[in-house]
Design brief:
With 129 residues, the chain is mostly helical. It has 4 helices and no strands. 11% of the residues are buried.
Length: 129
């Protein structure tokens, strides 16, 4: 009995070449998100404004760090949400209950991320009062 192939024949390079390629793919992904996803651009703008505001507020380092983390988490969640939407749209543009569920779950993840960000802002600002 032979062992099944454990690795994909499409697997890329290894070592430093893999790291360089992965960096290029990441930059391509960020550029595609910026170009095609208005929600991604909105979340990035919100992050720039929110993080920028922390520079001018007399808040503790932990509060500033939590706010930066919350904003970056929201950007990451939006990237995942956009990836799910693109994959679903690639599969079919027809209305299907599972496609709707996938898109709604991605949207719910972003909603929770934004609620988390709001809660962190509120708690941090309450410390300033």
């Amino acid at each position: 009995m032979t062992d099944p192939i454990q690795e994909s024949p499409f697997k890329g390079k290894t070592g430093l070449r893999r790291l360089i390629n992965a960096t290029g793919y990441s930059i391509d992904g960020l550029a595609a998100a910026w170009r095609h996803e208005s929600a991604f651009r909105q979340v990035c703008l919100l992050a720039l404004i929110g993080i920028g505001i922390t520079v001018f507020l007399p808040m503790p380092a932990w509060g500033r760090g939590l706010i930066v983390f919350a904003h970056l988490l929201s950007v990451i969640v939006e990237l995942f949400n956009s990836a799910i939407e693109a994959a679903v749209d690639h599969t079919s543009l027809e209305h299907h209950p599972l496609a709707k569920r996938a898109k709604d779950l991605g949207s719910a993840a972003q909603f929770i991320s934004l609620l988390n960000m709001s809660a962190i802002w509120i708690c941090t600002l309450m410390e300033l009062i």
